Amino acid sequence: MFADYYFGIVTSLSHDRLMRLDAKGRVIPELAENWEVKEEGKVWILHLVKNATWHDGKPLTAEDVAFSINYLLEKVPIYKFHLRLVERAEVVDDYTVKISLKEPWARFTVNLLVVRVIPKHVWEKVDEPLKYHGEDVNIGSGPYVYKSFDEATGTIVFEANQNYRLGKPKVDKVTFKLYKSTEAMIMALKRGDIDTVYHYARGVEPLYVPVLIEDPNIDFMIKPNLGVDNNLWFNTKLYPYNLTEFRQAVSYALNYRDYVNSIMAGYAEVPNAGFVPKGWSYFKETRKLETNLEKACAMLDAVGLRDLNGDGWRDFSNGTTLTIPILVRTDLPEAGRL
Fold first, then answer.
1. Domain assignments of the chain as residue spans, ordered by start
2. To the nearest 10°, the Cα dihedral for 113, 115, 118, 124?
3. Strand 27-29 to 19-21 pairing
4. Of 55, 107, 176, 198, which sits most exposed with the smallest number of CB within 10 A?
């Protein structure tokens, strides 16, 4: 349940969270029905719902919530990042939790969105959660109960929680099918083997849309992508990446129109300069990114990166050829596209 952060999103079926996002991307209550912020943002008081129960029938209380935060922070690596400013979670009473932070944290609610509340009576006896595979490993408090995983077929089954605090879900059973490739998943969709596809926070890769959109049996929900899926990061502690002019020169050397077509199959637009995407808070209207090789060359010349020996490659002032090592993620096939 903890090992794969991306797939972990699926466990939101079986595990309620403290807060969740609504359809408009706003943080709204789930297990925490309301909260207070005190001591200039360093203390958060969560007031919990009083009718939540675990799938084994035991009540969900502040003991479970405080335990979950402290346990995940101590035992599960990904949460050492998500909860990095948490000092301690404490029980105030049966349905109230106090969380103390090391310093004020404006985005704390966003980090709490990924906290899966787990039952203390199951996990307090487990010292190494990533290695635990007991029968009670998937007990949660959510609308669906984990039933089975067939490793041979890659099938995970959840069934409706008959005793869910908000009422029995309208869908009796949810089945997830894991595929080894996007192509296999898309073929299953076209055959009608599955009802929809899921790719962590992204939907269908644009390259597959032209084929799928012609199928009368497939409907699309088209939404703007507010993420930053394709980007190039510079290590600004190293020369010449620490030079603003160098980074801007690289920016002018990139062919954005080609990326719109080759990576996004035309389902995109050239973005503005800057990191904050359009549609986010604090977005500022800036110039459109553009390809201008003449300007890129002039900027590289200005910072002393020239072709000194006529071989077509830029050199440092000492004659050493400029080489730029690029590190890419190996778990995502599309990560190295440039």
1. 7-131, 144-212, 225-338
2. -160
3. antiparallel
4. 107
Alpha helices in the chain (DSSP H): 62-75, 77-82, 108-112, 120-123, 182-191, 209-212, 244-253, 256-262, 293-302
Lateral strand order in the sheet of 144-150? 144-150, 155-160, 173-177
Q: Residue 154 and residue 168: Cα distance in Å, rounded?
A: 27
| Phi, psi angle pair for 3, to nearest 5° | -65, -35
For 144-212, CATH gives 3.40.190.10
Torsion of CA 272, 276, 277, 279, to 10 degrees: -120
Q: CA torsion sign, 200 to 202 to 206 to 209?
A: positive
Residue reference for tokens 């992204």: 202
Task: Say if residues 89 and 96 touch (Cβ distance below 8 Å).
Answer: no
For 7-131, give the CATH class: alpha beta
CA 299 – CA 246 distance, rounded (Å):
7
DSSP 149-202: EETTTTEEEEEE-TT-TT---SSSEEEEE--SSHHHHHHHHHHTSSS----TTT
Element (H, E) at 101: strand 96-101
CB atoms within 10 A of CB 304: 12
User: Helices 293-302 and 244-253 meet at what angle, rounded to 10?
Assistant: 160
Do residues 101 and 87 touch, judged by C-beta distance below 8 A?
A: yes
For 269-325, write each residue's pLDDT tens digit.
Answer: 898 888 888 777 788 899 999 999 999 999 999 999 999 999 999 999 999 999 999
Q: Look up the CATH number of domain 225-338.
A: 3.10.105.10
The answer for residues whose C-beta is within 8 angstroms of residue 312's C-beta and 6 or more apart is none
220, 214 Cβ separation under 8 angstroms:
no
Q: Which two tokens stand for residue 222?
A: 């088209």
Model pLDDT for residues 4-39, shown as the tens digit of each residue: 555 566 788 999 999 998 877 789 999 999 999 999
